[in-house]
Write a structure and sequence with these properties.
Blueprint: E1 4-7, E2 16-22, E3 43-45, E4 52-57, E5 60-81, E6 97-112, E7 117-118, H1 131-134
Parallel strand pairs: 1-6, 2-6
Antiparallel strand pairs: 3-4, 4-5, 5-6, 5-7
Length: 138
C-alpha cells in the first residue's frame, strides 16, 4: 500500500512545533475524563530571550530548557480521499485512498526535569507579643 505525503507549507517553511516533556504523571480529575480534547492544563511562558521556559500548572511552577532533537519529527494529518472508481479485485466498501498532509515539524523539545516549585507557601504564623507583657502599663 502506498501512502502519499503532501506538504502545503510552501517553501519548506512549515510551522515549527515543540514537544513538552514532563517527568512523572499528569493526572486528570474524574470530572474531566470525557473532556480531554482542548483541555488547558497550564500556562507555558518564556520570560526572557534565553532558552529557559516556565510551565505553570495550578499552584506549581516548573522550569525547563529547550533541547534540540537528534532527528526532527513531522506532524501529520490523515486525509481520506474518496475513491470514485471501484476496482474489481477489491470488494470492501471502505477502500478509500489515504493521504498524509504535513501540518508541522518538530525540531526541539522543552524538557522539564526538575521538581515543581510551589507558588503558594504556607502562611507563617507569628506569635503575637502579649499586649500586657510587651507594652508597659501605666
Amino acid at each position: 500500500m502506498q501512502i502519499q505525503l503532501k506538504c502545503s507549507c510552501g517553501d519548506g517553511s512549515c510551522p515549527e512545533w515543540a514537544i513538552i516533556e514532563l517527568q512523572g504523571v499528569v493526572e486528570v480529575q474524574p470530572s474531566f475524563q470525557d473532556q480531554l480534547q482542548n483541555l488547558e492544563i497550564g500556562k507555558l511562558c518564556r520570560p526572557s530571550s534565553q532558552d529557559v521556559y516556565t510551565f505553570t500548572v495550578g499552584y506549581h511552577e516548573l522550569t525547563g530548557t529547550k533541547v534540540p532533537l537528534k532527528k526532527p519529527f513531522l506532524v501529520l494529518k490523515k486525509v481520506k480521499l474518496g475513491d470514485t472508481e471501484q476496482s474489481s479485485n477489491n470488494d470492501s466498501a471502505d477502500s478509500a485512498k489515504v493521504e498524509l498532509e504535513v501540518v508541522g515539524i518538530i525540531r526541539h523539545r522543552i524538557l522539564f526535569k526538575t521538581r515543581p516549585k510551589a507558588l503558594i507557601s504556607q502562611p507563617v504564623v507569628k506569635e503575637r507579643a502579649r499586649a500586657s507583657g510587651s507594652i508597659g502599663s501605666n
